[in-house]
Amino acid sequence: MVIRLAARLFLAVVVVVVLATFAANSFAADKALELSRALGQAKLFEGLTDKERAALESAATLRHCKEGERIIEQGKPLDRMFIVLEGQAEVRVNGKLVATLPDQSLVGEVEFVDMLPASADVVILKNTRLIELNNAALTSLMKRQPRLGYVLMSEIARIEGQRLRTMDLKLDSAQPSAAADRK
Hints:
The chain is of the alpha+beta class and 183 residues long.
């Protein structure tokens, strides 16, 4: 009787362990698939091959952020950058609104490039999904896969170039023209 009870208890423990392991593996597989899909959606990675995008999974995490969450704090060191997949974020410098960023915006890339503390606060405006890229892991991956590094750095440079042109246009339109100054 005691042996049967012990055998049943042992069998029940084995079943629970197997089911728990299966559930954990299934959850991890679902998370990996969700991250893989998110990396495929990000415009920043369009120039990468499927294999290169898969390699990015070692440096990336998919996060769900809530409205009002500050993902970057001005003046603080930053060891990651973010791609806002869906939603909006505000960029604030010294508390002043500088820009409202739409879907697919890359933030934290300046700190990735110059390795200085964050130059602005970035606050999520509405619940959103974003990809978080660990700078150290990404740098290591870029060293191991130079083509991947080249494609990413080219895309970051293109994004920064567009932002500079937009800022120049805003500055030009805010200044009186030289002809008006002569009158």
